[in-house]
Design a protein that fits this description.
CATH superfamily of the largest domain in chain B: P-loop containing nucleotide triphosphate hydrolases
Number of helices of chain A: 12
Structural class of chain B: alpha/beta
Strand order of the largest sheet of chain B: 7-8-9-5-10-11
Strand content of chain A: under 5%
Strand content of chain B: 25-35%
Shape of chain B: elongated
Structural class of chain A: mainly alpha
Oligomer: heterodimer
Distance between the termini of chain B: 42 Å
CATH topology of the largest domain in chain B: Rossmann fold
Radius of gyration of chain A: 23 Å
Number of strands of chain A: 0
Order of helices and strands of chain A: HHHHHHHHHHHH
Helix content of chain A: over 70%
Shape of chain A: globular
Order of helices and strands of chain B: EEEEEHEHEHHHEHEHEEHEHEEHEH
Number of domains of chain B: 2
Number of domains of chain A: 1
CATH class of the largest domain in chain B: Alpha Beta
Chain lengths: 296, 315
């Protein structure tokens, strides 16, 4: 190749290139940018998470108030405060579900419909860069809802401790919140992303995901209540709540999730994640090998 | 080095043929040096142009044969793909971004570092005459502005080869002229550019080097004027709709260049081997006879007729 420099009418970029292995980070950043762009995509779920944080934070603050503690026995107030965080987590999961409806569950189908795969693969992007980039970007968004919020509450809970003994006794809440936050982040990122790769129309992808989560989940929960408790683990929020109960050792008023065997809940979530990853990988590989778009 | 080389390249989509046994090398290249220039890839809808473009862009792998870009497979070689700027015909991705954001992310996906991508994107948009609109969202753009933005995404990372799939489709005449001007400028400046179109005059405005593709095969390649001359040798049809078609027949009945005349109540179709003479005599007949002409056109004056001629399909 000759080293001839042509006048292209603009400054041609001739500097260093980023290695291909770093492409996924460009996709992560792009995912974050586009998600934040319109109010209804991520901001709605984020707003809900902020409201949950304010309410739960207020309840935590009230529970630590000397007057409230003096009304009953101190231990009851402390127990209530300990229950606020796991209770709030179930609401954070609802915010995460909202984000799956506005972003995650239509990502791959949307890219297929809009022709974005053409733009990715016509450049030096590999299928694994795409998968990693999408997973990374969506995981960060989901973690803001399912990880950052609860962690903030846990920090507040620790900050409201009145004694060193109480602080030491409460410290494990940080670890519990981190574990649950990580599990919820993985579930609410990977599973809807897998559903988004299941069909090629973004509206159908959304509909299938919503039906699976809401309708099929409720049916599984009902079946679990009347027949086999293990079946209820197919309901994603119930499986997550079961793990929450086990970690925080609290019992919610409804109490129905306590009957799901913990191992079954963990297995259900793991299977969901593995299957979703499989679908995602299959779709992206097939788009790459089968070609983007049709003939013409 | 040859920019693009296809050897017995075929692509099927299941049982549907995309392209078949294409052997072709980009013209205008000399050993050891890229001279650039624009090549028009011409064919009717469904001919296989987009398939060939996608094969060149590395979006598809040949089912049989080989296609190389700068000596390597664009499908397998990421480094080669970095040297390609591709604009698909249809895509509605990321309309919520501004033009600058869109071009920046495309440049970054092609490997331009973040610190330089924005400047490179702004320069590319500037070169496409989009400076004033670069901070506006793509969603609100006209078709012409979208096409110019797509061109900017193709050139922002400084590729050596541009693949433009139907870049003039749906563009208004003013924007069309601007885009043609910019593509020609890029070609003249040393880029190797492949432009696909199903409209002959669009390609003629861009370049004289064409490849005619039909039913997945390369039908003709070379200088557009030579191909046009070849086409002009075959009988050319002229259809006139007027109030008294018989008057035209009477006036031109003795013309030796006419091989066939068809007439009905409202029109006459002439088949001639000398279109220039025929048009002159036709004009004279209309003026002399005081005829009222409702329409005048040539069913052959389109690419379909060219293909029919080249493939020998009866019309």
């Amino acid at each position: 190749m000759s080293g001839t420099i042509h006048d292209l009418g603009y400054q041609r970029y001739t500097g260093a290139r980023r290695p291909t292995s770093a492409r996924w980070r460009v996709i992560v950043r792009h995912q974050l940018t586009t998600a934040w762009r319109t109010w209804w995509r991520f901001k709605s779920a984020f707003g809900l998470a902020v409201i949950i944080s304010f309410i739960a934070g207020g309840l935590l603050y009230l529970a630590s108030d000397k007057l409230i503690r003096s009304l009953g026995s101190g231990s009851i107030a402390v127990t209530f405060a300990d229950g606020v965080i796991p209770m709030a987590m179930t609401w954070y999961h609802r915010a995460a579900f909202l984000a799956t409806l506005t972003i995650t569950a239509s990502v791959v189908a949307g890219d297929l419909q809009s022709g974005a795969f053409t733009l990715y693969f016509a450049r030096s992007v590999r299928p694994r860069d795409y998968v990693l980039g999408k997973l990374g970007g969506l995981a960060i968004l989901t973690a803001i809802l399912t990880f950052a919020g609860p962690l903030l509450l846990a920090g507040l809970r620790l900050g409201l401790c009145e004694s060193t003994e109480e602080l030491v006794a409460t410290l494990p809440v940080l670890g519990k919140v981190a574990i649950l936050g990580a599990i919820a982040t993985i579930v609410y990122t990977v599973v809807p992303l897998g559903f988004s790769a299941l069909v090629t129309d973004r509206r159908y992808a959304l509909a299938v995901w919503a039906a699976y989560y809401l309708v099929l989940g409720s049916m599984a929960l009902l079946a679990g209540l009347v027949a086999n408790h293990g079946l209820a683990a197919l309901d994603l929020p119930s499986a997550l709540e079961r793990i929450t109960l086990a970690l925080f050792d609290v019992q919610f008023v409804r109490g129905k999730h306590a009957d799901i065997p913990l191992a079954t809940a963990i297995a259900s979530l793991s299977i969901h994640v593995v299957v979703a990853l499989g679908i995602l990988g299959w779709r992206v590989r097939s788009v790459r090998t089968g070609g983007v778009g049709g003939s013409g | 080095m040859t920019a693009i080389k296809a050897e017995n390249c075929s692509k099927w989509y299941g049982q549907i043929l995309g392209i078949s046994n294409v052997t072709w090398t980009t013209p205008g290249t000399t050993p050891g040096r890229l001279t650039g220039g624009v090549v028009g890839l011409l064919g009717p809808n469904g001919a296989g142009k987009s398939t060939l473009m996608k094969l060149m862009a590395g979006l598809l792998r040949p089912s049989r044969g080989a296609l190389t870009v700068f000596g390597a497979s664009p499908y397998d070689d990421l480094e080669v793909r970095r040297r390609i700027g591709y604009t698909p015909e249809h895509e509605k991705a990321w309309d919520e971004l501004t033009a600058l954001e869109l071009v920046t992310v495309m440049a970054r996906l092609a490997g331009t570092p973040r610190t330089r991508a924005r400047d490179a994107a702004a320069a590319a948009l500037d070169a496409m005459g989009m400076t004033d609109a670069m901070h506006r969202r793509v969603r609100g753009f006209s078709k012409g502005m979208r096409q110019r933005t797509k061109l900017a995404t193709a050139i922002a990372h400084g590729p050596d080869l541009l693949l433009l799939d139907e870049p003039l489709t749906g563009v208004d005449p003013v924007a069309r002229a601007e885009i043609i001007e910019r593509i020609r400028a890029l070609g003249a400046a040393g880029k190797t550019i492949i432009v696909s179109s199903h409209v002959l005059y669009e390609i003629e405005a861009l370049t004289s080097e064409i490849v005619v593709i039909h039913r997945g095969q390369v039908l003709a390649e070379g200088n557009v004027f030579e191909i046009r001359r070849l086409i002009d040798k075959h009988p050319h049809r002229i259809r006139v709709e007027c109030d008294r078609p018989r008057a035209i027949v009477r006036a031109l009945a003795e013309a030796d260049h006419l091989s066939k005349i068809s007439i009905d109540a409202t029109s006459v179709t002439l088949e001639t081997r000398d279109p220039d003479r025929c048009y002159d005599q036709l004009a004279a007949a209309v003026l002399d006879g005081g005829l009222v002409v409702r329409s005048l056109g040539s069913p052959d004056n389109n690419l379909g007729a060219v293909f029919d001629y080249l493939t020998g399909t009866p019309r």
